[in-house]
Amino acid sequence: MSETASPDPELFDKIVNLSKRRGFVFQSAEIYGGFRSTYDYGPLGVLLLRNVKDAWWRSMVQQRHDVVGLDASILSPPQVWQASGHLANFSDPLVDCTNCNARHRLDKLDDPNVCPACGSEGTFTEAREFNLMFKTHAGPVTETAAEVYLRPETAQGMFINFANVLNTSRKRPPFGIAQIGKSFRNEITPGNFVFRTREFEQMEMEFFVPPAESRQWYEYWCQTRMDWYLDLGMDPAKIKLRAHDDDELSHYSSGTSDVEYLFPWGWDELEGIANRGDFDLTQHATHSGEKLDFFDQANNERYVPHVIEPAAGATRTAMAFLMDAYDEEVVNDDTRTVLRLDHRLAPYKIAVLPLSKKDTLTPTAMEVFDSLKGRWMVDYDETQSIGKRYARQDEVGTPYCITVDFETLEDRAVTVRERDTREQDRVSLDQLEGYLAERLS
Ligand code: ATP
Question: Which CATH superfamily is domain 9-81+134-322 in?
Answer without folding.
Answer: Bira Bifunctional Protein; Domain 2 (3.30.930.10)
